[in-house]
Structure formats: C-alpha cells, structure tokens
Design goal:
Radius of gyration: 21 Å
CATH class: Mainly Alpha
Helix content: over 70%
CATH topology: Growth Hormone, Chain: A
Number of helices: 16
CATH architecture: Up-down Bundle
Mean pLDDT: 84
Largest sheet: none
Structural class: mainly alpha
C-alpha cells in the first residue's frame, strides 16, 4: 500500500513492548503540565475575579485574547521542534531546557502586586500570556514525544493510559491540594496563600519534567528530514482531513470539561452552598478520572477504539443533560453524577491522543513527510483555544446574568446560568463530538494497512 507520495522506504519500528518505567516517566511529563493546565481550568477565573479583583468580563476576554499569541507561538514551536537536532533527540531537549522557566512563570502568574485596577489588569495581561507561552515550550514537544516513543498502536494506547493516570494524579495534586495548601500557607491572606501553594506545586512540576526527560527515548525517526518552510508544513497539516476531524473533537471535548471545571467553584459556592465542598467535589471527579484511564485499555483491547470513543461521548451527553434535572442543593446525587462524568470523560481522553498520533502516520503516508511537532502543536493550539473559549463563555455569561463577585447570594438568573454552564453546555459539546466522530476513518484495519505501507520490511 503506497500513499499519494509514492513508495516508502522503511523506518525504524518499536518491536518490543515499552517498559513500565518508561511509561511512568512519560506520564510524569503530563502530570507536570496538568499542575498548570488544571489550575487554569479550575481556579484561574475564580482567582482573577474573587482574589485579584478583576472584572469577570475582562478576565474572560483575556483568556480569549491570549490565544492570538498561541496562534503564532504554537505552530512555530512545533515547526522548530521538528527541525531540532541534538544528542537527546528532537523533542526531549525542551523538557530539560524549559522546566525551570516553566515553574517560575507559574508563580509569577499567581502573584498579586499592590496595584490599582488598571495596573492589575496590565499585570494579568502580561503574566497570563507568558504562562501560556512557557506551557507551549514544554508541552508541544512533550505531546509530540508520545508519537515517537513507539510506532505500535497497542503500545501507544498503553502509553497514553499510563500518561493520563499520572496526568490525573498531577491534576489532583494541583487542584485538590491547592485550596488546603493555600489556607495553610496564607491563612486569611488568600493572595499569599495561592502564590505560596503554586510555588510548592511548581517545584514538583519541574522535578516531574526532568524525570520525564531522563526516562524516555525517541525511537520513531522520520524517513525524510523536514526541509519545507513553516507555511508549507502548516498547509500540509491543514490538508490532512483526519487531523482536522481530531482537531474538532479536541475543541469540543475541552470546551465541555473546561467549562464544567471553570463553573465548578461557582457551583459549589452558590448552588451547593459551600465553597469548601469544591475540594471534595473535585476529588470525586478526579477519582473517577483515574478509574476511567484504567478502563480504557481493556475496552479498546476488546472493541474498536473509535467506537468506544463515540459511544462514551453519547453517554457523557446523556449524563450531563441529566444533571440539569437534579434539584438544587441535592448533594448526594450530584456527587454520584460527577463521579460518573469523571470516569467517562477520562475514558475518551487517551483514545483522543492515540487518534492524533494516528493522523501523523496517516499524513506521513499521504504526503511523504512526518510532521509530528507541527501536528501536535496544532492540536495544543486547539486545546488552548478551547480552554480560552470556555473561560470567555463563563466570564461573559456570568457578566450577562449579573454575577456579583464575592456576594453572599446571587440572583435567580445567575444561579440558572451557573447550573447551565455546569450541565447543559457540556452536554451539547459531547453530543456534537459523538456526531463528528462518525467522520473519522482511521480504524484498526486502516492503521494496519498504513503501518505496512510505511514499513514494508517489518
């Protein structure tokens, strides 16, 4: 089987299974990334509005405006990584070089200098994009690394399952520990507490990134060195129809989880009546995430991974819509439902990243060159755009419904808005994701044929 680019020469394959040490080491890299990613998703909006004192509409707009920088930096980072040559490979060096700056920008973003409102807005407008830039520097090469550790589809699923178990653990370390740690460090001074808590977590993130660098290896080598311009590579990615489909799925699923996550603190505070419930609520969700990761490989061993992905999205849509019907202040039912959401959502996440690796192989077969870094850069940009859109949706929806930061009570319209953000909006995203999955064609048989074409002697 030859793609439109003509016959293919062999490239190195990973024949033996990966060691548990390497899978754990790879997963630690995403655990580090989730210390920031989950903090932004669950806390940053609340931090900006209720601690740093920024208007909700401004904070929502800032999240969206920062994506203008990502539109340039993300694909450029992927393009640069694809052309990096070092004794450590193409992607691993950035984990080594970027670890410490990444940790420092985490602390800077949660700093609260004593400025007036205009000064605080400027400070946030500088530090938040800087944080996302450093996230780009380490996370795009990290994501691309997963596509070159092994070319075996079964091992890729196993690798991603390990990754997301540890990523969830990193997210729990970040989000479940954040509030108690901030209270212990800062007491009544919430600004000091948040800055101190993120400093502790940033040190852990730096150590995890360095461990990921030390324990992984790059094995899948492109047959042809990237020689095209940045724009040529971007054009080739845009022409990859299966990459576009996975990009749409990435957008829809991050919109669902990030909007629910960003609304969770508001839901705990104003619907369930206690901000202190947020930690228990989030711990329940995160526990479900770990169970979902553990279920992914057994299910995909038995059923087509694309079918598992589609049906799980449908189940997520149904459960999310059902949450809208739960009476306000009904805590037990909501805890059970958020546990189910946690399990189901994290079942689809490893599959989604394997699908992205598959689109890289598909692009190499179709176009004759492997664009691992640029492909994952495009995916990460879509991911961050979805995260920003979710922040904008929350900020603008709350502003439109008359949200009063720090108020003891909110209007009925505001309460309905918070519940809808927590339930109906994610339900719609998951339902659309299930529909879009029908257009994804890279199932097991197709990937086996592509692997045989790329590696005729294997």
């Amino acid at each position: 089987m030859n793609g439109p680019g003509g016959p293919r020469s062999p490239r190195p394959m990973q024949a033996e299974g990966l060691s548990a040490r390497e899978k754990v080491g790879y997963g630690l890299g995403d655990a580090a990334s989730h210390i920031v990613f989950d903090n932004v998703m669950f806390y940053m909006m609340f931090f900006y509005t209720d601690i740093f004192g920024l208007p909700a509409a401004f904070a929502g707009g800032l999240f969206l405006a920062a994506r203008g920088l990502d539109a340039v930096s993300d694909p450029l980072m992927g393009w640069l990584a694809d052309r990096t040559h070092s004794r450590w490979g193409r992607f691993r060096p950035y984990l080594l070089w970027g670890a410490v700056p990444f940790g420092l920008t985490c602390v800077l973003a949660y700093s609260t200098p004593g400025l007036g409102l205009a000064g605080r807005m400027v400070f946030a407008a500088v530090t938040y994009p800087l944080l996302t830039l450093m996230y780009t520097v380490v996370n795009i090469p990290y994501c691309a690394l997963g596509g070159v550790i092994t070319a075996d589809d079964t091992e890729r699923i196993s690798l991603q399952a390990y990754r997301f178990v540890l990523a969830t653990a990193g997210g729990m370390l970040s989000t479940v520990v954040m509030v108690p740690l901030a209270s212990w460090i800062g007491g009544s001074d919430r600004a000091l507490g948040y800055r101190g808590a993120i400093a502790v977590l940033a040190v852990a993130a730096v150590a995890m990134l360095l461990a990921c660098f030390a324990s992984t290896r790059e094995r899948v080598v492109p047959k042809r060195e990237g020689a095209g311009s940045f724009w040529a590579d971007a054009r080739d990615i845009a022409r990859n129809d299966q990459w576009r489909i996975v990009g749409a799925l990435t957008m829809l699923n991050i919109l669902a989880v990030a909007t629910r996550g960003g609304a969770m603190m508001y839901y705990s505070t104003y619907i369930l009546g206690s901000a202190g419930l947020f930690t228990a609520f989030l711990a329940t969700y995160s526990g479900g995430n770990i169970l979902g990761c553990l279920l992914t490989k057994p299910l995909t061993d038995r059923f087509c991974k694309v079918s598992v992905y589609a049906w799980t999205n449908l189940a997520l849509a149904a459960v999310s819509a059902g949450m809208w019907l739960v009476p306000l202040h009904e805590r037990t039912a909501m805890f059970l439902l958020i546990l189910a959401i946690g399990v189901l959502h994290q079942m689809i996440t490893p599959i989604q990243w394997v699908m992205m690796s598959d689109t890289v192989d598909y692009g190499e077969w179709r176009q004759g060159k492997r664009l691992t870094g640029v492909s994952f850069a495009g995916t990460l940009f879509v991911l961050k755009l979805g995260l920003a859109l979710s922040g904008a949706v929350i900020g603008w929806a709350l502003a439109a419904c008359g949200y009063l930061p720090g108020a003891g009570t909110q209007s009925p319209a505001t309460l309905r808005c918070i519940v809808a953000l927590f339930t109906l909006f994610p339900a719609a995203c998951y339902a659309l994701s299930a529909v879009v999955t029908r257009r994804y064609s890279l199932r097991a048989a197709e990937m086996q044929a592509i692997a045989a074409a790329l590696n005729p002697g294997a």
